[in-house]
Write a structure and sequence with these properties.
The structure is a single chain. The protein is an alpha/beta fold. It is built from 18 helices and 25 strands. The protein has three domains: 245 residues, Aminohydrolase, N-terminal nucleophile (Ntn) domain (Glutamine Phosphoribosylpyrophosphate, subunit 1, domain 1, 4-Layer Sandwich); 192 residues, Rossmann fold (3-Layer(aba) Sandwich), CATH 3.40.50; 156 residues, 3-Layer(aba) Sandwich (Rossmann fold), CATH 3.40.50. Strands 3-2-4-1-10-9-11-15 form an eight-stranded antiparallel β-sheet, with helices on one face. It has a seven-stranded antiparallel β-sheet with strand order 5-6-7-8-12-13-14, covered by helices on one side. A five-stranded parallel β-sheet has the order 17-16-18-19-20, with helices on both faces. The longest helix is centred in the C-terminal third of the chain and has 20 residues. It binds 5-amino-5-deoxy-1-O-phosphono-D-mannitol.
Length: 600
Amino acid sequence: MCGIVGYIGYKDVKEILLNGLEKLEYRGYDSAGIAVRNEKGVHVFREKGRIADLRQTVDVNVQAVTGIGHTRWATHGVPSKDNAHPHQSTAGRFTLVHNGVIENYEQLKKEYLLDVPMKSDTDTEVIVQLVEIFANEGLDTEAAFRKTLQMLKGSYALALLDAEQEETIFVAKNKSPLLVGLGEGFNVVASDAMAMIQITDQFVELMDKEMVIVTKEKVTIKNLDGQEIQRAPYTAELDASDIEKGTYPHYMLKEIDEQPLVMRKIIQAYQNDQGKLTIDQGIIQALNEADRLYIVACGTSYHAGLVGKQFLEKVAKIPTEVHVASEFGYNMPLLSEKPLFIFISQSGETADSRAVLVKVKEMGCKALTITNVQGSTLSREADYTLLLHAGPEIAVASTKAYTAQIAVLSILAHATAESRGIKLEFDLIHELGIVANAMEVLCDTKAEFEQIARDYLASTRNCFFIGRALDYYVSLEGALKLKEISYIQAEGFAGGELKHGTIALIEEGTPVVALATQQDVNLSIRGNVKEVVARGANPCIISMKGLESEEDRFVIPAVHELLTPLAAVVPMQLIAYYAALHRSCDVDKPRNLAKSVTVE
Ligand code: M6R
């Protein structure tokens, strides 16, 4: 969701900004723009659509060493050139990019800007107009910016240029991610280290309600009272090659293929010198002190949480609830006496999850974040963090983060069980190794899944995924993958639930993907398949070695029954990938979606 870049230094800035924006494309956007400042003033280039479209509009003759750029994912106002950032104040003195949502923008408009003609439908324009109004009243830019920030309610990451102030970018942050990167003779601003990792790996984290004055020599962080804050930089552990596609046509395919490696990395990361799986003692103690765990997450991470609940209850024997973050605020369950919250988030920036984290911290609860991004907001604000070690996930459709989340949850449950003296019935390191091998086999069988996508999904309007027990959760994830990238109406159901309504939708030829990896319910799910076939469905049964039957379309290599989601999801991911490809969809950047959902 919206991305920001900025550069101030000695090189021509246009290409640096455009390259940086390309690295942020994965976050999702529908328009983009850059503003560059030189001795002649500020030059703005904006376009609806892709960065490639923006490139066409940028005047190559304009040279500048200072600039800001933005990818916009529309919230206020349709995706259009007028609503694209950067936005400029009426006199053109100030130019601004913004990520987030200003909740009181209507009120600010009424109070201060009644006479100011607005050029866009965005909440952002209010900010830049206010800065100009306060500057016209005699404040210097820093003071005008600070005064404006003090009035804003909501979330923002901001970068501001002043046409009258040479070589400075004014930056601010509240609830939306933003980093400042440090270089030799230059400094940068970015929503995500990935955008600037090609030119620096030294970054400074910004906290909420901070503003920063960035020149090419200096970075000065202040709070909104104007007091200076000292903060040391950190080294972003990101390899520039991690964020390249290499020979792959899409990031999603690369990330699906990386899953066996990620499983092995996770085993390594959580293994101690004695070869045992281990988790930080503080985290284990927090789980042991809790009388109930509350997993909070969105989308794919929520689906991973559903599987995690099974481990935490069956292996570690701790009652666990799983909640969709966006609903938690209104539908908060009656909490137990000693709750522990577990936030699962690939990005660590999801606003819905963060809103719950803020609320439960205010209530005095402890929280653990399981995330792929060290130093992300959810990680910083929780008491404890477990990392996924999945490497950057760039495709909007989450794949390797899902399997990494499940693997880390299994290790967490395993280590907690061990600390409680619970006798473990299987060797998790060995079983995760088997999973990694099974994933490899599945990734090597792509042609099979491409054919399934062709046979079942080439021209269908809809598709159902059914499963029981753990397979039900994988069905939910399979349906989410398919709908988000192929735009086929897809729903996941508990096999037994179909007859309570959804079976009415089954028509001649309706594809029904049925998962059969659970021994206890193997016969029941096959019974459900018979029910839909009797009504004309076109069934695609994906089973597991040892449970297979003649009618099955594909048989997954056997893995431990509790870990089946790790293997069973790979066919779901590949089928969705090929269905989207056959339909000529933009696999890595599906319409309307953002990778990092930083608005509630
Ligand atoms: O970064 P998060 O894990 O918190 O993101 C949560 C969801 O937005 C995310 O999983 C989304 O559902 C994916 N696009 C699914 O592929």
